[in-house]
Amino acid sequence: MGRKWNNIKEKKASKDANTSRIYAKFGREIYVAAKQGEPDPESNRTLKVVLERAKTYNVPKAIIDRALEKAKGNSDETYDELRYEGFGPNGSMVIVDALTNNVNRTASEVRAAFSKNGGSMGVSGSVAYMFDATAVIGLEGKSAEEVLEILMEAEVDVRDIIEEDDAVIIYAEPDQFHAVQAAFKNVGITEFTVAELTMLPQTYVTLPEDAQAQFEKMIDALEDLEDVQHVYHNVDFGE
Q1: How many beta carbons lie within 10 A of that of residue 79, not counting itself?
Q2: Which of 91, 184, 187, 233 is most exposed, with minimal Cβ within 10 Å?
Q3: Which residues pair with 140 in a beta bridge?
């Protein structure tokens, strides 16, 4: 289950850090989450998830505070949450989640990123049924057995626990995201290498070298779009 979550996160963070786009995307996501409820993570569970994710990507406090202050102010800036589904080479599948203040612009840009890189847009539901919404929590300094014991003591059920390199990765239902973290925080563990709500494919595909290069170019083009927050796919890059 999963594909080397710590390596994937480090690769993405390294790529995004060069352009600071990851910070801009988190700023937008924090603002939207805060505007949808109270700008307080203790009473706004959606905001709390976003802030936990931001922490694992080392998003500067100034970026977070600016987004929260903007949400508390009189800004009337609004964003639509959109999901696009599509296909890459050799039957590969892609989900794109976006936050946008211009639906037509975003749809056009996403469609172009697919079509210019050997992919195509699909209709709603054509891909998502092959993915499962999943909470992914990672931590270091504990074995899988110790992690299981902590979760059992807290009576928290999870899907799977995997030892990966020097970390342990926990896969759980999305609604268990906070419960999993709370179980560890209750025993003094407050730092997580991964804290994500993601879409995991039910099966992975491996592409030939030329198709994989084209697919990676398509994923990069999608992730580079200003309005795109998350891109999920079912290709095994062998990370």
Answers
A1: 19
A2: 91
A3: 167
**Does the structure show a pLDDT above 80 at 49?**
yes
Query: Sorting pLDDT into bands at 50, 70 and 90, what band is 1?
Result: very low
Q: What is the reported pTM?
A: 0.90
Complete domains list, the chain, with CATH: 5-72 (1.10.10.200), 80-129+202-233 (3.30.70.980), 132-201 (3.30.70.980)
* Contact yes or no for 49/197 (Cβ under 8 A): yes
pLDDT tens across 200-233, in order? 999 999 999 999 999 999 999 999 999 999 999 9
Structure tokens at 188: 């003094």
- Non-local CB neighbours of 227 within 8 Å, separated by 6+ positions: 98, 99, 100, 102, 105, 106, 109
CB 221 within 8 A of CB 116: yes
CA distance 35 to 42: 14
**How far is residue 239 from each of residues 5, 13, 220, measured CA to CA in Å?**
9, 15, 16
Instruction: Name the token pair of 6.
Output: 């710590």
DSSP-derived letter for residue 174 is G
pLDDT band at residue 239 under the 50/70/90 scheme = low
Tokens of 235: 């290709």
